[in-house]
Amino acid sequence: MPRRFFKRILPDPIKVQNASYMRHFKSFAENRQLWTTKRRNIVWGLAIGLFIGFQPIIPHVLTAILLSIWLRANIPMAVAAALLNNPITLVPMYYLGYKVGCTILNVPAFAMSEDTTKLEFIKELFTIHLQPLMLGCFVTGLFFALICSFGLNEFWKWNVLNKRKKRIFNAGESARLRQDNIEKKEND
Predict the structure, then answer these.
(1) Which of 74, 62, 55, 59 is nearest to 143 (CA)?
(2) Is residue 65 part of a domain?
(3) Is 66 within a domain?
(4) Residue 131: inside a domain, yes or no?
């Protein structure tokens, strides 16, 4: 189920490879490992995308693609997970990162007094509050990437084992029914 699900929702690799915007990246686009829907590649793509999505950097998608190429992860999954950082989720994600960073560094949270000038505000923002933001976003990105990729990995394994058990049970059940039919015919 997970593999079929991801094959259905992720874009067709051949269509992406033949797209006009991919002509400069032909060597990477032809690498099948970057497009495969195997468990390892999907899980790595999710981890990369979530980690990059939490970082306060500008080119989230490009960074996710480059990291996916380097680590040989599923590119569409990494891009989809990196797009979690959008204008709606941006503020809560960075605020959570900032609060986590303040807690780790034991820095008081941002508070602006009324007599602060704009220049002092900007100076304080870049000297005091940038470190907690960067550290907190790194930690929260790592945390969510690990938790979600571990959860997806375990769900995938559980699903595959469940299907295997059902298949074995159904095969054993049908063999038992055949044996019962043979015995019944012999007794008649």
Answers:
(1) 55
(2) yes
(3) yes
(4) no
Q: 118-140 pLDDT, tens per residue?
A: 677 777 777 778 888 899 999 99
Domain that holds residue 163: 2-88+142-187
Q: How many helices (H) and strands (E) does the chain have?
A: 9, 0
Render pLDDT for 166-176 as a digit per residue (tens, 0 to 9). 877 777 666 66
Q: In sequence order, which ranges of 39-89 are alpha helices (DSSP H)?
A: 39-54, 60-71, 75-82
Distance CA 98, CA 109 (A): 8
Identity of the amino acid at 72 = R
For residue 83, the SS3 value is: coil
Query: Exposed, middle or buried, 124 (CB in 10 Å: 0-12/13-18/19+)?
Result: middle
Domain count, the chain: 1
* Residue 146 forms part of a structural domain: yes
Q: Please give the Cα distance from 41 to 29 (Å, whole number).
A: 15
